[in-house]
TrEMBL record:
<dbReference type="GO" id="GO:0003677">
    <property type="term" value="F:DNA binding"/>
</dbReference>
<dbReference type="Pfam" id="PF17757">
    <property type="entry name" value="UvrB_inter"/>
</dbReference>
<dbReference type="InterPro" id="IPR004807">
    <property type="entry name" value="UvrB"/>
</dbReference>
<dbReference type="GO" id="GO:0005524">
    <property type="term" value="F:ATP binding"/>
</dbReference>
<dbReference type="GO" id="GO:0009380">
    <property type="term" value="C:excinuclease repair complex"/>
</dbReference>
<keyword id="KW-0547">Nucleotide-binding</keyword>
<dbReference type="InterPro" id="IPR041471">
    <property type="entry name" value="UvrB_inter"/>
</dbReference>
<dbReference type="GO" id="GO:0006289">
    <property type="term" value="P:nucleotide-excision repair"/>
</dbReference>
<dbReference type="GO" id="GO:0016887">
    <property type="term" value="F:ATP hydrolysis activity"/>
</dbReference>
<feature type="domain" description="UvrB interaction">
    <location>
        <begin position="139"/>
        <end position="195"/>
    </location>
</feature>
<protein>
    <submittedName>
        <fullName>Transcription-repair coupling factor</fullName>
    </submittedName>
</protein>
<keyword id="KW-0067">ATP-binding</keyword>
<dbReference type="InterPro" id="IPR027417">
    <property type="entry name" value="P-loop_NTPase"/>
</dbReference>
């Protein structure tokens, strides 16, 4: 038997799965470490639907995400990291955290089965509606026409920071007809040259 099917057939586990429903509450105790991780994975595999896991702290969310990475496919596991309440809230959120949150929100908006891990601070964070989130997306394709001044304003409204040189996710720069942008959902920055009113990438 594969480890990620360890709980299948156990009456107590099957009872929890069958009782999962909106507005329902269940208390499961006695699980810790890898047993808890496999239990969560087992429920996810049985339900095959979006699942949000809330931990008490960001550190525990990080750890649970790392543990689940051994069981849940990469394209179905996402973390929504939010700094703990306190002095860190006054600091600028790290580009890495912003990127992870965007990926998690994209997945939630998509609605396909996935595990989203966050903390109490994350679940309390005020978020846009699904419609607002979708409207805030910016798609640029070859042949599109853009006014660079309007594009600059749009990127500011989306939370991107104007810099002389792009070095981290969430930054962009404009030099003449050239736009350098580091999307939060990309591993590398992108350069777009507007040599004409139409995009030449």
């Amino acid at each position: 038997m594969e480890l990620d099917h360890l709980f299948e057939g156990i009456p107590e586990f099957e009872d929890v799965v069958t009782k999962v429903a909106p507005q329902s509450r269940q208390l499961v105790t006695g699980l810790s470490g890898s047993a808890k991780t496999m239990f969560i994975n087992g429920i996810y595999k049985q339900l095959n639907q979006p699942m949000i896991i809330v931990t008490d702290t960001l550190a525990h969310a990080d750890q649970l995400t790392a543990d689940l990475a051994n069981l849940v496919p990469d394209d179905q596991l996402f973390e929504f990291p939010v700094e703990e309440i306190g002095a860190s809230e006054l600091a600028t959120s790290s580009p890495e955290y912003k990127a992870l949150r965007v990926l998690a929100l994209n997945q939630l908006a998509d609605g396909s089965p996935a595990v989203i891990v966050t903390s109490v601070s994350g679940i309390r964070r005020i978020l846009p509606t699904k419609g607002q989130f979708e409207d805030a997306k910016l798609m640029i394709s070859t042949g599109d026409e853009f006014d660079l001044a309007e594009l600059k304003l749009k990127l500011h409204q989306m939370g991107y920071s104007l810099q002389k040189m792009v070095a981290a996710p969430g930054e962009f720069s404009i030099r003449g007809s050239i736009l350098d942008i580091y999307p939060l959902s990309s591993d590398n920055p992108i350069r777009i040259d507007f040599l004409t009113p139409k995009l030449i990438r």
